[in-house]
Amino acid sequence: MKRLYFALLLVLCGTASPLSADTFDPEPVDPGFEGGQVSGDVSELFGDSAWFGRYRPHVGYRYQAGDTIGRIGGLSSFDAFFPVLEGDDSDWLMFIDARLLLGDDNHNLGSNVGLGARQYLPEYQRTIGGYIYHDTRDAGYANFDQISGGIETLGDIWDARLNWYVPTGTTRKQYATTHVNNGGSYQFIGHYLYGGTFTRYYQAAMKGLDMEAGAKFYTNDYMDLRAYAGWYHFQASGSPQAWGWKSRVESRISDMVALNLSVQNDRVFDTTVNFSVGIQWPSITGLRNGPRSDLKAWDRLGESPERLRAIVVDNQEVQDPNGGLIINPSTGNPYYFMHVATGGNSDGSYEDPYATLAAAFADPRTQAGDLIVYDHRDGSETGNFVLADNTQVLSEGPAQFINSQFGSLQLPDSGTGINPDITGSFTMSNNSVLSGFDITTTGAGSSIIANGVGNLMVSNNTINHNGAGTAISLTNLTGPATFDQTPLTKTDGLGVSITGSQNAADVTFTNSSITNTNGNAVVIANSGGTIEFGQITTTNGSTAVDIDDSSANITIAELNTSNTTLAPLDINNVSGSVTLNGGTFNNSGFSGVQIVNSNNITIKNTTINSPSTYGINGVNVNNFNFSSNTINNADSDGISVSGSGNGTISGNTIRSIVTAFSTGIDVTLNGNANVDIDNNTITSVIALAGSGIEVTASSGDVTTRIRDNQITSFVDAFGNGIDFTSNSTGVVDTTITGNTITNTIGAFGDAITFHGTANGVMTTNISNNTINNTAGAFGNAINVIYDDGSATTTISQNTIDSDDVGNLFGTSIYLNLNTTGTTTSYITENIISDDNNLALFTDGIAVDIDRGTNNTLFINKNKIAQYGGVFDDGIEIVADTISGASANVQIHDNILNGSAGIGGRGLDVFTSFGSNSLLLDVTGNNTDTSLYFEAVLGGEILVEDLPNLQINNNGASITTIGNVQNAP
């Protein structure tokens, strides 16, 4: 019993340290053993305790390199062999064999603890034995236990052994799965959708047995070699059976060192090669200097049994033939389907679907939401259906797609092109989808209802609504609503109502036209977010689109209307924005577009025919863009807007044909503004019409650019072509350039007029304009008046009355300086009536200086009636105000010709009254009439280099009357 206790102590404590003791005399040589080789035995290590006989404990280390059956990578083994009971004559032995295992692949542990017994049979010179073990293994993803054992027979020449292995407890464990999209098919099973390649990964401990037999085929004084061959069989649930062969060569270099090389093959583990080195100490025979070779059967009672030390484990990959569950990535749960199909009457599974939507919606599972109701029918049904949260209601008609762990997947059976017909309505909920139905609704109810919900999708449907009700009613939305490929046809009543959605709830109509007859298309009130519409068409009704009290950013791709009793597009109190990108309005009973107290309004690419009042009318609009529109026969202004901010009126065509519009473009700026009025075409034909472009700057700092517009009056009476009035005390910067203004056989007011009335700071640039008057009566071509404020004025490179035929013209360029502010004026390089035909006009350039003493004027390089014309004066400058005024005037290099001397003077300068004074620099001018200077009643004219005035002006005739003096 002492030896048994000691064995247990070694196993539990794992000691590998030898016990030191005094030596004692060796035992007598046992029968059958030639001991002449031995000088002592291992009993000396343990003293005289008599615990052990011939066979003594030994420890060792063994390393197996390479793969083998059921194991990948090398294996380290720390061994301990302990004799427990031994026969009196050492011919039998009971022992404990224990080891700690450490794998190379993942450094996980295992163990063997076994009890064995051997008996030496002298008459056969053979040892027979048996053993049983408890084994453990950490295989990386699973821990396994097994009971194993075996029997053996060991001889001087040949050996044979048979081992068996039986796992206990958990023998198979799933440790991972993969689900990949292999491009294959998808299928419904029950209430779920399966598809892709779904693979489960297991580790399984295999039961089995192995057998080998072999013989010693070589020996010498230092080593022996043994060769073995055998077979094995292992099996586990989920694995094919591993039937295989194996072979092994063993070399004992000494009684303490052994080498092994083994090769195995089977269909599970394929071919594996394994090499091992084992070292043990002391020797297994108990002889201190035990034999290096030629071990006898009796010597081998003390060696460890040869067996598979690690539990055989198969790493399995098992593919599900149905594929895996398709997952909703937003929830992480599998999609659940409630099927509806003709002939079904059960539980809504794919194999036994419900026959109607009503039955499917009555299912408590549908009421709970978070599922897809999938309608496979091509029939019809009547009912009003309320969707629960996270519910999709789909039909097979369109190609239906869902988001999955693989991205977007098309549902099986979808894409037939046939939608079920539903008479009734659908009430949407949070995160709900409705797709693939033809919906018909009659009366006061709605087809689509969403109240206090968000994140909904209505796609691939048609909606036909007849009656006074609202077809689509969206109220108090908390999240986005999308309508895609869902056209609405409406008769009477309202098409779409979006109200109370101030929580930035986006609403989008994509490829979803709205058509309404005898009703209105859209009402938006008290809503925010982004709202987008595609094509909207109405016939009759009052207002096609009515937008009120909203912070939303609203876009309409196309709006077409006929015969509305009010404005087709009515915008009131919008703090967000409204953009209309196109359409046609015919015969509206009010303005085409009516805008009041709103921000960021864009109207583009829209044709407005015969509105009863304005084409586009904006009142108190902050930031606007009216571009590329066509407005025909407006009864009032074509475009009228009052407001501030950034404004663009560009590329519009405004025509009055047999109808008098008031003004083509009428703009009133009531605050800081930056406005462009460019590339517009304004035409009045056979009509009595107002101005072409009229701008009033009422207050604030205003920058206005009026460029490249075409304004034409034909056989009619037209007001001013371009009329700008500055009533602002701020900074007013005005550019009027590149415009063409034409009057043909009609009466026309001023072509371009600028009137500054307030004490502001004005910069005015009127340049590169073309003004034509053909056989008609025309007012001033360019008329600039300053009644207050300071001003810098440039009137340059304009062409006036070119290629005319006998017409009446007022002053070509008129400048009135009636202000005490500082003014600087440039009138340069203008061409005035340069043809050979008859042109009758008052003055070419006329300047009245009525107030102020700080006026500077440059009149240079103008060509006035270069070849012909009848006029009063080429250039006329007058300072005759009672209050007194003065100016410094430069007149250089002008051409001032009358028609064969008919008419007035080339240059006519006149002052009167006591305090009016002009300082003139007159040089390089050409005239076929005269240069005339008259200062009377106390007026004064000072001329630089007066004695040489004729010479300095190419021999022109000079006339001076009154107080005309040479400048000092």
How does this structure look, described?
The strands form six sheets. A 15-stranded parallel beta barrel has the order 27-29-32-35-38-40-42-44-46-43-41-39-36-33-30. A hairpin with a 2-residue loop joins strand 9 (186-189) and strand 10. Helix content is 3%, strand content 56%.
The total strand number stands at 85
Silhouette = elongated
The percent range for strand residues is over 45%
Spans of at least 5 consecutive residues with low confidence: 1-49, 803-808, 835-839
What about the largest sheet?
A: 15 strands, parallel, barrel
Mean pLDDT across every amino acid position? 87
Total helix count?
4
The separation of the N and C termini measures: 147 Å
The side-by-side strand order for the widest beta sheet comes to 27-29-32-35-38-40-42-44-46-43-41-39-36-33-30
The percentage helix is: under 10%
Q: From the alpha-carbon coordinates, what is the Rg to the nearest angstrom?
A: 54 Å
- In terms of structural class, how would the helical and strand content be classed? mainly beta
